[in-house]
Amino acid sequence: MSLVVIALIVWALGWSLNRWLANGPYAANRWTGLCVAAVFGATVLIMWELIVRGLGVPAVILPPPSAIAAAFASSTSILWADFVQTILKGGLSGYVIGCGAGFAVAILVDRYDFLRRGLLPVGNFMSALPIVGTAPILVMWYGFGWQSKAAVVVLMVFFPMLVNTVAGLRDTSAMQRDLMRTYGAGYWPTLIKLRLPAAMPFIFNGLKISTTLALIGAIVAEFFGSPTVGLGFRISTSVGQLALDMVWAAIVVSALAGSAFYGAVAAIERGVTFWHPSQRGQ
Amino acid sequence: DAHADEVRLQLQWVTQAQFAGYYVALDQGFYEEEGLDVTILPGGPDIAPPQVLAGGGADVMLNWMPSALAARENGLPVVNIAQPFKTSGLMLTCWKDTGITGPQDFVGRTIGVWFFGNEYPFLSWMSQEGISTDGGEDGVTVLKQGFNVDPLLQRQADCISTMTYNEYNQVLSSGVSPDELVTFKYEDMGVATLEDGMYVLEENLADPEFEDKMVRFVRASMAGWKWAEENPTEAAMIVLDYDETGAQTEEHQIAMMEEVAKLTAGSNGALDEADFQRTVDTLLAGGSDPVITAQPEGAWTSAITDAALN
Amino acid sequence: MTDAVISAQHLDLTFQTGDGPVHALRDVNLTIDKGDFVSFIGPSGCGKTTFLRCIAGLETPTGGDLTVNGMTPDEARKARAYGYVFQAAGLYPWRTIGGNIRLPLEIMGFSKADQAERVKRVLELVDLAGFEKKYPWQLSGGMQQRASIARALAFDADILLMDEPFGALDEIVRDHLNEELLKLWARTEKTIGFVTHSIPEAVYLSTKIVVMSPRPGRITDVIDSPLPRERPLDIRDTPEFIAIAHRVREGLRAGHQED
Amino acid sequence: MTDAVISAQHLDLTFQTGDGPVHALRDVNLTIDKGDFVSFIGPSGCGKTTFLRCIAGLETPTGGDLTVNGMTPDEARKARAYGYVFQAAGLYPWRTIGGNIRLPLEIMGFSKADQAERVKRVLELVDLAGFEKKYPWQLSGGMQQRASIARALAFDADILLMDEPFGALDEIVRDHLNEELLKLWARTEKTIGFVTHSIPEAVYLSTKIVVMSPRPGRITDVIDSPLPRERPLDIRDTPEFIAIAHRVREGLRAGHQED
Amino acid sequence: MKGTLGPVLTVILAILAIWYVACVPMNVREVLSAAERDGAVVTPTDPVERRDAGAVGLVLNNTAHLGASWSLDRAKLPAPHQIAVELWNTTVVEEMTGRRGIVNSGSLSNRGLVYHAGITLWATVLGFVIGTGLGILLAVGIVHSRTMEMSVMPWAIVSQTIPIVALAPMIIVVLYSVGLQGMLPKAVISAYLSFFPVVVGMVKGLRSPDQSQLDLMHTYNASKSAVLVKLRLPASVPYLFASLKIGIAASLVGAIVGELPVQQGGLGARMLAGSYYGQTSQIWAALIAAAALAALLVWSIGALERRTLRRMGVV
Ligand SMILES: Nc1ncnc2c1ncn2[C@@H]1O[C@H](COP(=O)(O)OP(=O)(O)OP(=O)(O)O)[C@@H](O)[C@H]1O
Ligand SMILES: Nc1ncnc2c1ncn2[C@@H]1O[C@H](COP(=O)(O)OP(=O)(O)OP(=O)(O)O)[C@@H](O)[C@H]1O
Ligand SMILES: Cc1ncc(C[n+]2csc(CCO)c2C)c(N)n1
Ligand SMILES: [Mg+2]
Ligand SMILES: [Mg+2]
């Protein structure tokens, strides 16, 4: 019980430190944001550790962070193989194919208004198909390997990408389009010189949403059949073996990979859409 | 009545005739007669009964012994209090046209296996046969099999795990004739492990009140099983009544009940020490990567069944 | 009418909208000669923009005749007969100032060398040499507007159409740009169509002031300016200037009172 | 200085920004008497808005003294000493015109009956009676701006601060609103601080014109207008008017040339 | 809305046509195996060879034996009409004639989709309400406290990379252990999924008033709560609804995911049962029911949005 009290004290300390950081003299510093988030994260971890120990929560229900860290450290090679299988093979290839297809179809849909009016509502309906239903079907179609995971990811990211790109391609002001018309510019110059650049913020929005979807899709699809490697396989098998520390280690891998993936796309976005007001602010 | 003792039973799979005994006991009032108010919690994919037990979500769970013993080694002291299933229903089912005739032919093949704590019998078997399961050229490629027999039908695997009472029937009912298949029952291969035992937490057993409750529970459950063996059709219908998903079919459940009856037939609920030892030996024989590393102590008790059955 | 660069006869335009038709232009007759600087002034919604867009071939009249350089406006547009400057600078933010000015040149297929040369020349013309590599948002509003004029000048069309190009700028900057625009006009001898809300601006710049009134949009007065072509800024305090301004204001007020 | 409603002495304000400090106001000295109509004019970025915001207690000066009704600006703000009108009407689109005018009254805790009475009165004052139930988007820009003035008048502060209230409107509507504003000022005898970009507007409205220049923002000229309080619109064509306008323009130009 | 009906119908017809055609190669191996069992001679005769042969090649070599492509029981890809029949049977027919149908038993049949859609719907709505409520509260906190924003916001983003869907079974077991059963565990997963879009949208919405709108409040010396009630909340309504539409769809996914491990009814359980018994048309029917439910929910939010915005006068 005393551990729980300590946990509450840690919380109070962490929070007041953050208050000071966020509102004090260093508030404007670039690194303060990172610090505050790190302090918050550390506080939560310490509290977790203390409360789990203090209340004697069984390790098969919720292991303490120290045990998770230990499991992570001692199984790096297994987790690396899982990472390669799920994220690189399943997730990334699906992401590339799905986003690419979404983009290409968006261009088509944008070109032919008939398609836009016909495809978008139907696509909207189909995007509501939950993956937990489609994943078993795709595993049946594409086998147990990473291909079926990629297929699930393709299905998940296709529509967000399509919708965002279509919205982006239409996000030019009448004046910007008229300017092109005063030059007597046809479809392709207008697309390449105006609409695509203008669509970039939307396209990247789609790409960013798709990162987390890709990750989740690839992992969840492994629940419906997989080879004996992969983050989803690891999570589900380790739950069955009551190796909860390993489950959480796999979750950490997925969170790290997801954050890195998201961060990478966001970094590219900053490079490509440097001109957009939302990027200029920072 | 209001004074009935509550017992929550965690199944290890969805409501089906595999668990007919318990539903019959519930439906026919056997539990009530013992003064028990029993709640049956259906399981499902990725629900780990030991975890539910550990979290206090259930009082008794059904589990395969390899999984239970592994949980014990992982620091969750579960104890077998009764073993209604005498015989193992687990087998590998292969296409005959792949040319597989025995375990020696598995090398280079793709085999579907249930994981989630159910992989231990297969891994033990393979290591006894000296076949690697790491997917190399000289070993078998293992797939984490989903919940159905599609991998076999789609020929994504050469062999898959099936239960005599369930998945095998599903293969047949999809139009495949038994002649097209080769089956390897773990029972016949000498690597059978005990399935569907009742387990409780060791610490709970220390409480005489709990122990008494379990005695009554096991007694009523076994009565349910015997009733089910004698009236398979009615038992199947009872199971159907309790199936909330409405997914089960009459025909399939009756067939399942008939097969399950064969597995429970040899048991009055008491665990046969020889069966236990055979299971443990199989698991210990796991070669480089045994499922359990030491002879388990106190992993089962006859106290409950002794009290229940006299 | 030998010199008529733009000629409108009985021009009519009705927009079909959800709330029924909007009669934006009615029976508009106007001739603009080569080298003219014509301002269009009128209250909001009187059809100034619409008329300019008709000339540019961006809007199709529903009645009457309109020729630009003797062609239909659409042909003229495809022949790249004019440069168009919008109210807001409307520079593409992902392109540098240089890149923005290069945009029409790329589309029209000028050679790389020619492009560079023209960009340099028009940047000097609008006094923005040295800003080629900057992005639009790094420049003040006035500089952006100059860049957009440069963009319209880069491919050397004979006609320059400007729709309230200085509407968003403050008076001082506006004065300055007006002066510059006059110089540029003198140097290049282009024909300019210029939409504005500001009476002093219209009077200061134009050789011809077209006063319009709304609902439906039509021309109520066309004033040929007696002011000399050479105009220092303080010409605005002269009686001639004030007299013209007065006439314009009266014309506007008359149009306004009707509704 | 008995009547000074607003008094600034050696006012200084420096913003700390990412790109280093911006000196927005330097050594600003000004006294505004009760009943004055004071216009602030100057090029973009000269600190007009900043000065008005200082008076309103929305910005804190980094040096010098500033009193409003003898209090600090912040005290004056809390005492609800002034009404503030922003450049855009800034009506809340989810409230009707009446609801928008009621907003300050709700916040300041006026009784329901009092609220209704005041809304009615100010709507009449700005000539919008009958529009209470309309939503802002159902009104023209000029009407919206009048509503926003009504909102600032509703709680009857003695001071009215207006930051380019008519900047977004066209000249004719603007003329009209200027006339109305003068009448309102005459009727209510409020003290008005008014920011504008337009020389004619400043000259037409004010009893005192404050000319400012940028980098750092300071006052370069304060002109006490000799024009009578009663001003028809065509006073703008009189020589006195033109003379003042000229002086203002020169003041502005001087400030501009420096940089 | 105007002018979409024609194109939508066209697209649907095109999809159906492609679907029917696709059934042939997708199902060709099962079709040929069945034909072979019935005594037909198919090429190649060896099923292992067939496994490795291309589907199109098989179709072309066995054109005479493809009749069963659209009527297989365990089709890899069931034909649209098979799904339609399944939908019809598990809704209308089951309720009208089934032993447990509403006609014979007075309550909805657990073999019918309506019953399961209902179960899923309630968990969805409950989770959605919880998630939305918490999301709005957190957004209000974030907007008012810099500390909260800087501490919580980055982790809220990281939390979205955790495959919560994969953890659903564990979460449910953990909730079991604190005594939560039935609808609530599903609702918790729903809430988790719908929470994030609401936070993001509401933070944006609560911050959407521009400086002059805030300054106006400041000139009235308005309290924080007055600013929240009279300015920030009304201004955030359009953002809220945009997030709610995403949130309710996410909520539905959460409920379905929560139903997988606990086979106690709901569309999720239905899908899994379909998969478990190889009843592909049952999966498809449940999938379509889920998508229709999602469409209905999003539409309802949209209708609510239109009504609210109209009441607020914002067109
Ligand atoms: N694309 C359009 N569809 C329907 N109505 C239009 C369209 N464009 C303009 N209008 C209407 O036509 C009339 C004239 O518009 P126009 O933009 O030409 O006015 P303007 O004189 O340029 O006004 P402003 O000074 O405000 O720019 C207005 O009533 C306007 O609402
Ligand atoms: N909050 C702020 N932070 C930093 N700099 C500011 C801030 N507000 C204004 N400034 C700077 O202070 C100077 C004066 O700005 P201010 O808005 O008062 O000018 P203004 O005269 O109102 O201009 P405009 O006519 O364009 O409205 C400008 O250089 C502006 O960029
Ligand atoms: C995820 C998961 N996969 C397999 C099993 C193994 N299993 C134990 S009993 C049973 C039913 C057989 O008809 C099955 C499949 C499980 N429990 N959970
Ligand atoms: Mg216009
Ligand atoms: Mg300003």
From TrEMBL, chain A:
Q: What InterPro entries does this protein's entry cite?
A: MetI-like, MetI-like_sf
Q: Keyword annotations for this protein?
A: Cell membrane, Membrane, Transmembrane, Transmembrane helix, Transport
Where does the sequence pass through the membrane?
Answer: 28-48, 60-80, 92-110, 122-144, 150-169, 202-226, 246-268
UniProt entry tagged with the keyword Signal:
no
Pfam family name, one: BPD_transp_1
Give start and end of each ABC transmembrane type-1 domain: 84-269
Where primarily located? membrane
Compartment(s) of residence: Cell membrane
Mode of membrane association: Multi-pass membrane protein
Signal peptide segment: none
What would be one Gene Ontology cellular-component term for the protein? plasma membrane
- Which GO biological process annotations does it have? transmembrane transport
Q: Which family does it belong to?
A: Belongs to the binding-protein-dependent transport system permease family.
Query: What is the name attached to this protein's record?
Result: Putative aliphatic sulfonates transport permease protein SsuC
From TrEMBL, chains C, D:
> What EC class is this?
hydrolase
| EC numbers for this chain | 3.6.3.36
Top-level lineage group: Bacteria
Which Pfam families is this protein grouped with?
ABC_tran (PF00005)
Question: Which segments constitute the ABC transporter domain?
Answer: 8-235
Give the InterPro entries listed for this entry. Answer: AAA+_ATPase (IPR003593), ABC_transporter-like_ATP-bd (IPR003439), ABC_transporter-like_CS (IPR017871), ABC_transporter_ATP-bind (IPR050166), P-loop_NTPase (IPR027417)
Q: Which UniProt keywords apply?
A: ATP-binding, Hydrolase, Nucleotide-binding, Transport
What does the record give under GO molecular function? ATP binding; ATP hydrolysis activity
Name the family the entry cites.
Belongs to the ABC transporter superfamily.
Protein name as catalogued: Taurine import ATP-binding protein TauB
TrEMBL record, chain E:
Its Gene Ontology cellular component terms are: plasma membrane
Tell me which PROSITE patterns the record gives.
ABC_TM1
Superkingdom field:
Bacteria
Read off the Gene3D superfamilies from this record.
Answer: MetI-like
Q: Biological process GO annotation list?
A: transmembrane transport
Where it mainly occurs, coarsely classed, is membrane
This protein's name: Bicarbonate transport system permease protein CmpB
Give the Pfam families listed for this entry.
BPD_transp_1
Where is the protein localized?
Cell membrane
Q: Which family does it belong to?
A: Belongs to the binding-protein-dependent transport system permease family.
- ABC transmembrane type-1 domain residues are 113-305
CDD domains in the record, alphabetically? TM_PBP2
The entry's keywords: Cell membrane, Membrane, Transmembrane, Transmembrane helix, Transport
